[in-house]
Specification:
Order of helices and strands: EHEHEHEHEHEHEHHEHEEEEEEHHHE
Strand content: 15-25%
CATH topology of the largest domain: Dihydrodipicolinate Reductase, domain 2
Low-confidence stretches: 297-308, 313-321
Structural class: alpha/beta
Mean pLDDT: 92
CATH class of the largest domain: Alpha Beta
Radius of gyration: 20 Å
Number of helices: 12
Largest sheet: 9 strands, mixed
Number of strands: 15
Number of domains: 2
Length: 379
């Protein structure tokens, strides 16, 4: 790729694509060129084309890949299409950045990674919260051993309303509700900060509260198709001795909040609000550093997406919309693209981490269905 910008194609031109568009725009055309757009919906494709008039248009991924000119494909579709699109893009010669969740299940995830290995291309899941300055600081702190060993992690994702700006409420499209669609963000962030231990077992309870709650706010289509869990609680054991509690809620009257709190043998670390409290000789000492971008947006990303219209460019000056979460997406895309230019591998995650995350999600749903704990096979 030396000597020319990374040629980027985007599959899925809806809400999440607007943030990837912003990332490519910020890098500049000498670094990244968005040359192809793909979407099944004509309206969204045309709106995206207004932003990128030089890009060619395609209605399906094989058509997108046919010219053979793409270095990178960003997949921003719903999870039920991730495997087929990612595999086609990899086999077509492109590296792939794919939105969460990974796939509909671990078997699909493994097929994607096998395709990447067979094609000699790289695949990365968009675990963009790893790019937050606070996440990276806490990760290094745990890795240094200076705060001791991880013991207990509380991971939560609370939301006033379901994220019905996309069909996350429809299981055969989304792969699951509050766990697969929203709690997954904090789940990956917390496990990564904790050193990426392997999950051993999980017990989960899930139920659907809608339409008893929020029913009057939903459209007829949402009410007809809503079949996922919107309330989930779980307990996970890891091979490093840590245990984690999971709490997901799409009908939380106190409003949106997503994050984790990690208790170690010497400290308590929290993502929101960002904090580092350390035991020093029996006294609690606040060692929270001042970090640029440390103030995480109080409103969750999928609430902010209510303000994002496909085809409408994001304004960098809008400090509320381009908050820490959105900057992390731009940082993620920039890192992936710069590494391609420099010939460096993508090292943010590996096969074990990706499959562990999906197997943990699969295990939660299996446990909730069976009504008992589930042992997890190693990745």
């Amino acid at each position: 790729m030396a000597g020319h910008p990374v040629c980027v194609g985007v599959v899925g031109c809806g809400t999440i694509a607007q943030f990837h568009f912003q990332a490519v725009k910020e890098l500049g055309e000498d670094t990244a060129a968005l040359v192809a757009l793909c979407d099944l919906r004509e309206e969204r494709l045309e709106q995206a084309h207004q932003l990128w008039p030089a890009a060619r248009l395609a209605r399906e991924v094989r058509e997108l890949m046919a010219p053979g000119d793409l270095d990178l494909v960003i997949v921003g579709t719903m999870p039920h299409t991730h495997a087929s699109i990612a595999i086609a893009a990899l086999e077509g010669g492109a590296h792939v950045l794919c939105e969460k969740p990974f796939a509909m299940n671990a078997a699909e995830g493994q097929a994607i990674l096998d395709a990447a290995a067979g094609a000699g291309r790289q695949f990365q899941l968009c675990t963009n919260l790893r790019y937050l300055p606070t996440s990276q600081y806490l990760r290094e702190l745990v890795n240094s051993g200076s705060v001791g060993i991880p013991l207990l992690c509380k991971i939560w994702s609370y939301h006033l309303n379901p994220p019905w700006w996309a069909p996350h409420y429809h299981r055969s499209t989304s792969g699951g509700g509050v766990l697969a669609s929203t709690l997954i963000h904090a789940l990956d962030q917390a496990i990564w900060v904790s050193g990426c231990p392997n999950p051993l077992s999980v017990q989960a309870v899930a139920r659907r509260v809608f339409p008893e709650k929020r029913g009057p706010l939903a459209t007829g289509e949402v009410r007809a198709r809503y079949d996922v869990e919107d309330l989930l609680s779980g307990f996970v054991r890891f091979d490093n001795g840590m245990v984690a509690t999971l709490e997901g809620n799409w009908c939380y009257e106190r409003g949106d909040s997503i994050g984790f709190e990690l208790v170690t043998t010497q400290a308590t670390l929290s993502s929101v609000p960002f904090g580092v409290l350390v035991d020093k000789g029996g006294k609690v000492v606040d060692q929270t550093p001042e970090l640029a971008g440390a103030e995480f947006a109080r409103r969750a990303f999928w609430h902010l997406t209510d303000q994002v219209e496909p085809g409408k460019p994001l304004e960098v000056a809008d400090t509320e919309l381009i908050a820490a979460w959105t900057r992390s997406i731009c940082a993620q895309d920039a890192d992936a693209i710069q590494r391609l230019i420099q010939g460096r591998p993508w090292e943010l995650q590996n096969r074990r981490q990706l499959l562990n995350l999906q197997r943990l999600i699969d295990g939660c749903y299996e446990s909730a269905q069976l009504g008992r704990p589930v042992e997890l096979a190693p990745a």
